[in-house]
Amino acid sequence: MRHSTSQATPAxxxxxxxxxxxxxxxxxxxxxxxxxxxxxxxxxxxxxxxDIPAAVRSEQPTFVGGDSVQGRPDLETVIEGHAExxxxxxxxxxxxxxxxxxxxxxxxxxxxxxxxxxxxxxxxQLELKVEAxxxxxxNPSYRLLRNDAYGTAxxxxxxxxxxxxxxxxxxxxxxxxxxxxxxxxxxxxxTSLRIDEEEGVGQASGAVLSFMGLPVLPxxxxxxxxSEQRRSGVLPPTLGIDSxxxxxxTLPYYWNIAxxxxxxxxxxxxxxxxxxxxxxxxxxESGYNGRVRADFMPSDQLRHENRWAYLxxxxxxLGSLDGSPVGLSLNLNRxxxxxxxxxxxxxxxxxxxxxxxxxxxxxxWAKGDFSMRLAAxxxxxxxxxxxxxxxxxxxxxxxxxxxxxNTLPGGLQAxxxxxxxxxxxxxxxxxxxxxxxxxxxLGQLSLPVRTPGWFVEPKVQLHLTEYRFDTPLLAxxxxxxxxxxxxxxxxxxxxxxxxxxxxxxxxxxxxEPRAFYTYTPFRDQSALPNYDTAxxxxxxxxxxxxxxxxxxxRIADNDLLTVGxxxxxxxxxxxxxxxxxxxxxxxxxxxERVVLPGETPISERLSDLLFVASIAWTPKWGVDTTVQYNPxxxxxxxxxxxxxYSPSAYHLFTFGYRxxxxxxxxxxxxxxxxxxxxxxxxxxxxxxxxxxGEGRWYGVxxxxxxxxxxxxxxxxxxxxxxxxxxxGRVVLERVQNGTTTxxxxxxxQIEFSxxxxxxxxxxxxLRDNIPRYQFLRQQTTQPxxxxxxx
Length: 790
Fold this sequence. Notes:
mainly beta
């Protein structure tokens, strides 16, 4: 039934809650008393959904109640004293309430309060069509559920259940404190405030944003988010000070084209350079996705030339071949000149601020055990006269194929890999090698045997390589070359386990000794060019490799035995690794003879020792370290130490130390820590994305220091203040953009909770530079209307 009033003549009574419920459910109870009824089964009620569909809403009953009720069936109902009308997610309270059933119209007077899906309005007078949610509220105060914003107005016009217009409105998220003189830290005043719950956006006309009593943003119109949902409109401006470009002001506009497409325009005024026009388009389809970013500065006042840059990325499928999809991947990066990386070190696209820009594309196809890849790659090298770079070779094109069979008789596994690449350089004299073609084939056969306590894997490989050069080699005058190199390897290991107790804690401890032998006979490769090969970094992972080079231009002549052991401490209940320690060393039986140009052959029989350790005893702290130790000199050739301490949320300190003896020595520090702790004002984390509460200061930063040069390389340091309904940030960032030059900028930002942010992109800088940085304000869950239920 639609409502609970059914008197034949006007009458007065004082119903009880039990009577109201019984009256509304009368027909349902009568039907439940019929015989042979099936057992009752609990089902989810449609009325308990967060968003009640229109079809369900029209079927919901209306409940009314109060001190006295009078009316005529199916015409009108009048409730006096503690009046209440309830339908679905809409509840109206008032001193007097009139409900007209034919028009579905409710008129309320005196202490009116309406709760619509958690949004609350209070005032003296309301007229509302309940189901359509059309009407007006005179002189209300209001509070919105999504972002806990509230304010007052002369009038609210309800357009429907998702949209409303608030006249002569105030808007803030600052929660009221005791005292007659209290004023919110920030407040928005507008002649008209349009709330769109469906789009998750508010639009203000004739608006003035005040902060600490001072107008900071008078605008004829602006839009702001009511949730994390995307929306079209002008975004808050960003302002920064850059030592190279001067004062920078950006006024972005966001266009929410569709749920799977959007675009953003970034016009930026740089006081020393001029206007930069930037834009980005993103798309996400069922079979492909990507983005395009472009920047254009018509005339740079410092460089006296046009400056531009673009980036395009695309990943998806391009039809099918023999029933299997063909994948397409594109990654294009280009800038106007060699100085772009130096002048725009803080560009929003990091790929465009590097000195080597890759432009590549590939087609990928796989079916069963066979896969193919056709690719092309071209580099743009941004040169610095004080630190020139030898450009890498372009691959125009590269064709790769692979066949892998793991189900051969007797447990054998076989694979064949082939690669044909055309190497091209715009200036072969700078590379001192001719352009050319290289065809490479690697065939291998292995017999892996693995059990819970041990494993062994013998493997044989055959490397075949052929070159064709555009011009003769300088060293030999040859226009072609060939190479055939076999390799044999044997990998083996044991796994022991035992129960152990350390520092009063039970563990499952493993001991995993391992031995790896590889043999590759010498083949003279000194006359061969080097198009794409470099030595592997000596580490605990690469020490178990059969070839000490990455790339196909050199196959190292090896007669090596690598031995080592690893022990791990595992939680017996969860399997989580609390600690891991490892040691490894190579034993060389013959001198090394195959090297890259400029390298010195290795004649030492014993390599440096490698020690690794990783400790995560508790979630509060962790340590990872690697030491490459030279027994002859008694010193470490290379060392790394990474430590993290995080006793609780918003308390984070990271330490990094990297030493490469004779080349570099650096210390890296990162932190996010409440400064109130320093004077004994310890806070309590309020939960993810809520900080430690208002009125607290935080120190944030990251510092990279070169011990060898005795100077700071890069640094980000700043402060954050949580004002409860706003967050202030001041960040100083310094980035090295040359051997003797750097770029410094100051970032200011005020983030108004539930509204937006003014200033520069300080938050993005902190997120990109500080490991495990935590947001002080971030909505992690969507508010429920049942959390504000009447």
